[in-house]
Design a protein that fits this description.
Layout lengths: L16 H8 L10 E2 L6 E2 L10 E2 L2 E2 L3 H4 L2
Antiparallel strand pairs: 1-2, 3-4
């Protein structure tokens, strides 16, 4: 005799709203990491060209004066 029964995965316990919410209290947004531009001192994301003065590691990569013309 063969039983034709489908089995489903069923959670052993229903997780309460409070329990889910307590876990999610640890989900937080972190502020972006920043460093100071060595030339102009503006807050810059690490390993990126400075958007304020267009330099990277003290070298001009984007000519800001020419670009704005
Ligand atoms: Zn800069």
């Amino acid at each position: 005799m063969k039983l034709n029964i489908q089995l489903f995965a069923v959670p052993a316990r229903h997780m309460s709203k409070t329990s889910s919410r307590m876990r999610r209290t640890h989900y937080k947004i972190e502020a972006n990491a920043t460093t100071k531009c060595p030339k102009c001192g503006a807050d810059v994301r690490p390993h990126r060209v400075c958007e304020n003065c267009g330099t990277y590691k003290g070298k001009t990569v984007i000519n800001k004066e020419e670009a704005t013309k």
